[in-house]
Amino acid sequence: MPDHDLIHDPNGGMPRLLAIMRALRDPQTGCPWDIEQDFSTIAPYTIEEAYEVADAIEREAWDELKGELGDLLFQSVFHAQMADERGLFTFDQVADTMSDKMVARHPHVFGDESRDKSAEQQTQDWEAIKAQERAGKAQKGTLDGVAVGLPALLRAYKLQKRAARVGFDWPAIDHVIDKIAEEAAELKEARDTLTQAEIEEEFGDLLFVMANLGRHLNIEPEAALRAANAKFIKRFQGVEAKLAEMGKRPEDSDLAEMDALWDAVKLEHRAGQNKS
């Protein structure tokens, strides 16, 4: 039976959330929608909630972040409850697994190793420990374990990072930039002479090398693209606002006018940034 006192306790914390999840999945008294779900149907929501956390951070919407983190936490609770029902593992075991992993990966904090090392050295140590963990899981290939479900741009970044660990990498950024020029030329040629499938392949090659350039510049491409998306939205909204002042909508304008307004908005935003 659901613990109604705990469920309605505003200060119930984590035990309250777990009790609510159990009640939602109760076959007799729970929510029909929640009961019908399984790992595969919930996974898309988990990904979506993770992006909403990233979005709140990107916008510095700190008043929203608490709720978004709660939504993401609920996804972990949901998956753990379904696993518990199947006898796979419990939420406490999820938490213990993460705790064990963090302790093992931070011997300079929780063990005998010295903390007197650079962040770069700590990163190298972290990667070495993760390599040992993969070996224990019988993941023998260099690229084993890079999640298939990651966004493609982020997965490209991680695949290249793995390959670089074993020396499969360009030694200098200039080589990456040269490769970008090469791939761009191939895409241009493909546009005029090849099939749509071949054009798509060349476009993918160019994106892949762009992700590699980001890695060489210590830029996480997914984060950089999110920031570029946010900047585009802000500037285009500025164009729409200026058109509205003229009694127009974008569909009433033309490219030349909107391009001029875009430049004006860009200058205004840069001026505002310089003042701050």
Automatic annotation (TrEMBL):
One matching Pfam family, short form?
A: PRA-PH
**Ranges of residues in domain NTP pyrophosphohydrolase MazG-like:** 37-110
The record lists the catalysed reaction(s) as: ATP + H2O = AMP + diphosphate + H(+)
Q: Name one GO biological process term.
A: TTP catabolic process
SUPFAM superfamilies xref list: all-alpha NTP pyrophosphatases
In the Enzyme Commission scheme, what number(s) does this protein have? Answer: 3.6.1.8
What keywords is this UniProt entry annotated with? Answer: Coiled coil, Hydrolase
> Which EC class is the enzyme in?
hydrolase
Chain segments annotated as coiled-coil in the UniProt record: 173-200
Q: What is this protein called?
A: Nucleoside triphosphate pyrophosphohydrolase
Q: Which organism does this sequence originate in?
A: Thalassobius vesicularis
Q: Which gene encodes it?
A: mazG
